[in-house]
Design goal:
The protein contains nine helices and 15 strands. The protein is α+β, with helices and mostly antiparallel strands. It has two domains: about 150 residues, Fructose-1,6-Bisphosphatase, Chain A, domain 1, CATH 3.30.540; about 110 residues, 3-Layer(aba) Sandwich (D-Maltodextrin-Binding Protein, domain 2), CATH 3.40.190. It has a seven-stranded mixed beta sheet with strand order 3-4-5-6-7-8-9, sandwiched between helices. Helix 5 packs across helix 9. The termini are far apart. About 45% of the residues are buried.
Length: about 270
């Protein structure tokens, strides 16, 4: 599957899954995943399961040879278990920000990425409540598509605010140091928002406490391809599968520029 074909297929799947999520928000009960240590990680609803299978059906019809790394343990995942070990890998998060979703927030997303030979080659992030879908292809750029609107190439402009987003486990001391420089430090519970911050224009930077995981990196490709940067520790991210990087590369920072990333890193590590 080419990156272009992935975007074509996953775009439709994300739009369909997003409509399911949007219509059912407020009508489903939150469950708890076993083995998770945070409220964000433990949140689960029937919508997560249903939307994941919507996506998997589309992928199976288009490319049954793919490997999948799916967030939820649904029955349809097993259909992909016969894929070759070197087949392209699709990373899927059917409802990123489930805790937000259950609380009625608009900050949740449907997202997925295509990895080939250990590198992110394409990504799609849809925000159903905002009617926006972002996509990127490595080395080719990023695009935004709004409901009933044309698909447009995305070039990030300077953000209108000095906001910095932090994930919930960023220590209070680090938040305090950031707040001494940036007037608004806000906790975000949706990694699609954090990682895509450059494309969304919601602030200068976003910080996660540890090395990134595969799902957060979906949004990193969107930010990277519209002109932003992502650092794991002081190492620029160039599209590698985060699972292949040392755990010691922390924190994870996405920013509008290398200068902002460096400043944020210094404040978090002080």
């Amino acid at each position: 599957m080419t990156p272009e074909r992935f975007v074509e297929v996953f775009r439709v799947a994300a739009l369909q899954a997003g409509q399911v999520a949007r219509y059912l928000q407020g009508q489903v009960e939150k469950r708890e995943k076993a083995g998770e240590v945070t409220a964000e990680g433990a949140a689960l609803t029937a919508v997560d399961l249903a939307t994941q299978d919507v996506i998997l059906h589309q992928l199976w019809a288009a490319a049954p040879h793919l490997r999948v790394d799916a967030e939820e343990d649904t029955e349809f995942v097993a259909r992909f278990q016969g894929a070759a070990s070197d087949a392209p890998l699709v990373v899927i998060d059917p409802v990123d920000g489930t805790l937000n979703y259950t609380l009625g927030s608009k900050d949740y997303a449907v997202m997925g990425a295509l990895l080939v030979a250990g590198f992110y080659e394409a990504a799609v992030v849809a925000f159903p409540a905002y009617g926006e879908l972002y996509s990127a292809i490595r080395g080719q750029g990023a695009w935004i598509e709004r409901t009933f609107g044309a698909r447009e190439r995305l070039v990030a402009s300077p953000p209108p605010s000095e906001r910095v987003l932090v994930s919930p486990r960023v220590p209070e001391a680090a938040r305090g140091r950031l707040a001494a420089v940036y007037p608004e430090v806000t906790v975000s519970r949706c990694s699609a928002v954090d990682a895509s911050i450059v494309a969304l224009g919601r602030g200068r930077a976003a910080v996660s406490e540890g090395r990134s995981d595969r799902r957060r990196a979906v949004g990193y490709l969107i930010s990277l391809e519209c002109g932003g940067v992502t650092w794991h520790g002081d190492r620029p991210w160039r599209g590698e599968d985060p699972d292949t990087l040392p755990e010691s590369l922390a924190p994870s920072i996405t920013a509008e520029s290398p200068e902002t990333a460096q400043r944020v890193l210094e404040l978090v590590r002080s």
